[in-house]
Amino acid sequence: MYSLNVNTEFLHSKPYGFELFFINLERNRMAKKKDKIEDFQVGETIYRTTVNKMHKERKPYTPPDIRKLTAFIPGTILDIAFKKGDEVKEGDIIMYLEAMKMKNIIKASIDGVIKKIHVKEGVIVSKNQLLVELK
Question: Which helix (H) or strand (E) holds 85?
Fold first, then answer.
């Protein structure tokens, strides 16, 4: 006879009975759990599924604002070519961001006027940090 300690309970089994024991143990866990099926919305689509804590507490999706330019990678601001109030056209180089020994170009995504520059030259920025606002 073999014995097994599971969750501080002492269980006994005959030889070769362990496989059946573990299958029944798993079935009992599944039967006790019985997750509720709920409606879960992602965008405009609604799914009927079991929802866990991660899904319930997730941050809702917000579409990116093309008037706000953010750092796509952590790095250092090397050079800022424009100042507040300057007009920019789509594709104009606004600043250079050095990351991992590479110069990355931050360009204007739309035609507009620079509303505010949130960084200065030489400043270290983190990923997704707001750099420039356009209007």
Answer: none
